[in-house]
Amino acid sequence: MSWISLTLETDDTHAEALSDAMLELGALSTDIHDAAAGTEREQSLFDEPGESAGEIWSVSELTALFEADADITSIVQAAAQAAQLPIPPVYHLTHVEEQDWVRITQSQFDPIQISSRLWIVPTWHRAPDPAAINLTLDPGLAFGTGSHPTTKLCLAWLDENLQGGEDVLDYGCGSGILAIAASKLGAHHAVGVDIDAQAVAASRENAMLNQCDETEMEFHTAHFATWTDPAREAWADVVVANILANPLIMLAPILMRATRQGGHIVLSGILMEQAEEVSHVYQQWFNMHIAGVREGWVLLAGTRK
Ligand SMILES: C[S@@+](CC[C@H](N)C(=O)[O-])C[C@H]1O[C@@H](n2cnc3c(N)ncnc32)[C@H](O)[C@@H]1O
């Protein structure tokens, strides 16, 4: 089975009416996104006859999901009529193949601002601030849209602490979001590792989407043998791992061996009540501290002794 995703731009007053009409006409879901946040334009093609030329309005992007055999032309015409638009709006269509409803629910996620210079922008949105560092992301079936508090904590740490030129290991890379962010923030080389082959594939695709240099980035399915190879020891300036408390405890010797002396370990996926236990394990090799807390999740960071 497959679906069609319809996207159109309209003014904010008509967006709700179009959305309601499309749901009545068979849309499986709709999403209204403020396409011109913070900006306003004067007058539009959609102005009702007699509306004053100077009226202020803002642009909304409406996305609606339909079954593949839906008669989109008729639906758009009927919805425009119901919303009292003088002419049907221009729209574009994307085919959504059967992959997983995860992707469809993920399509509800909007651009996320991590800092004044760093944004995570899903592939189906325009970058709200084109001058910023925009990480374009399609998480597919992998974890890591940037919306989870633990991912935000790790991204904020990278944003605040990377100086440029570091070698970075992202252990449990999911969508590749942290490795790619590190690269965009100036890391010399980023290595992403995940136990899940689908996550590694998503990471590689996201690296390509972000035009990351192949020589500066690599992704691997986790094999313990690779990471106990002495040639790979003590090479990373930063090791970031957003997994969960128990795997982090289990992986501690591997993550420790990868970190060079004076390098940083950055751990999340840890609940407040688990922080002490995880910290205690890593404390034998690192000077650990709590570097951030968000919605009950903790970011632990440390410097290799
Ligand atoms: C919570 S997600 C984090 C994804 C991404 N780094 C982020 O911050 O949003 C954890 C990831 O770790 C992976 N993972 C879990 N246990 C692992 C292990 N023992 N070795 C490597 N990866 C693991 C999972 O497959 C998943 O993709």
From TrEMBL:
Coarse class of the primary localization is cytoplasm
Q: Which reaction does it catalyse?
A: L-lysyl-[protein] + 3 S-adenosyl-L-methionine = N(6),N(6),N(6)-trimethyl-L-lysyl-[protein] + 3 S-adenosyl-L-homocysteine + 3 H(+)
Tell me which stretches of the chain form a coiled coil: none
Q: Which domain of life is it from?
A: Bacteria
Q: Which CDD domains match?
A: AdoMet_MTases
> Does the entry feature the keyword Metal-binding, yes or no?
no
Residue positions binding S-adenosyl-L-methionine = 151, 172, 194, 242
Family as reported in the entry's similarity comment: Belongs to the methyltransferase superfamily. PrmA family.
Chain's role:
Methylates ribosomal protein L11.
What is the name of this protein?
Ribosomal protein L11 methyltransferase
Q: Please give the organism.
A: Nitrosospira multiformis
- Gene, per the UniProt record: prmA
